[in-house]
Amino acid sequence: MFPEQNVMKDPFGRTINYLRISVTDRCDLRCRYCMPAKGVVRVPMARILSFEEILELARIAVDMGVDKIRLTGGEPLVRRGIERLVHMLAQIPGVRDLAMTTNAQQLQRLAPALAEAGLMRVNISLDTLDAQVFTHLTRGGDLQKTLDGIAAARAAGLTPIKLNCVVQRSADEPHARAVADFAQKEGLQARFIQQMDFESGYFAQVDGGDGGDCPRCNRLRLSADGRIRPCLFSDLGFSVRELGPKRALIQALQNKPLRGGRCAENPMRGVGG
Ligand code: SF4
């Protein structure tokens, strides 16, 4: 499986060098395309991996060939002490890219400490520049907080900043065009993510990114409940605590599908896309 040091190949010959780590399924927003109105059953805290467990897993993954790590959620900034985890991961030799995906509601406060800890760059969720629509879509979020978070990330050097804009079907939708214009004016990169349907297995490649490009898939995911998932559009997951980090990673790699399919459950909250 690992003929060469530090190169990880899946059964289809794809090089896997990217680990997305969901540090929590909790979030301070309730986006309508992610969270049902009635709320969700949260992962019991006892099942969420400690920073030390995440660090051990990340070290082994880097040994096996990972050089790119992204922290996700839920919302990673609601995990207390997240800057400490960033610092731990930034010390791992071989991590070439350490990034985070955030809704930026708390980024103005945390950006300096995250940059100091070793975070390199951020992707920020922004679906509209209309403050009322923003609050409606997120069930209570504050657009100005996100804009202040973008400014704080730039000031802290967490660049390049990419904007993740969720669309129904295309980047030509009015809110998406406004986000594209904003990104161009501000020198940011906008990416457009079509709403996914896990039940039917519908997803599209990210417009402006490489997510959803199955033939060139390079990623594994650690879910908030401590399982390594070979694919976002698969129910398969291998428990880090039951199997141990190395075996969980190897089994996930060996069971990586050629392309995503249907899922019995919507994993978004606990996998972070
Ligand atoms: S659907 Fe699965 S195989 Fe396809 S790009 Fe996403 S994670 Fe990779």
How would you portray this structure in words?
The protein has 273 residues and is of the alpha/beta class. It has one domain (16-266): TIM Barrel, CATH 3.20.20.70. Helix content is 32%, strand content 15%. The protein has helices at 51-64, 82-90, 107-117, 131-137, 143-156, 174-186, 240-243, 245-254, 268-271, and strands spanning 18-22, 68-72, 97-102, 121-125, 162-167, 189-194, 219-222, 227-229, 238-239. Helix 1 (51-64) links the parallel strand 1 (18-22) and strand 2 (68-72). Helix 1 (51-64) runs parallel beside helix 2 (82-90), helix 2 (82-90) packs parallel to helix 3 (107-117) and helix 3 (107-117) packs parallel to helix 5. The two termini are 27 Å apart.
The profile of the biggest β sheet is: 9 strands, mixed
Shape: globular
Strand order of the largest sheet: 6-5-4-3-2-1-7-8-9
Helix content: 25-40%
The number of domains is: 1
**Mean pLDDT level:** 94
By oligomeric state, this entry counts as single chain
How many strand elements? 9
Mind telling me which CATH architecture this is?
Alpha-Beta Barrel
- Which small molecules are bound? iron/sulfur cluster
CATH C-level category: Alpha Beta
Unreliable sequence segments: none
CATH topology: TIM Barrel
Strand residue percentage: 15-25%
N-to-C terminal Cα separation, in Å?
27 Å
Keywords:
alpha/beta; 9 helices; 15% strand; binds iron/sulfur cluster
SSE topology sketch:
Elements: E1 18-22, H1 51-64, E2 68-72, H2 82-90, E3 97-102, H3 107-117, E4 121-125, H4 131-137, H5 143-156, E5 162-167, H6 174-186, E6 189-194, E7 219-222, E8 227-229, E9 238-239, H7 240-243, H8 245-254, H9 268-271
Parallel strand pairs: 1-2, 1-7, 2-3, 3-4, 4-5, 5-6
Antiparallel strand pairs: 7-8, 8-9
The structure holds iron/sulfur cluster.
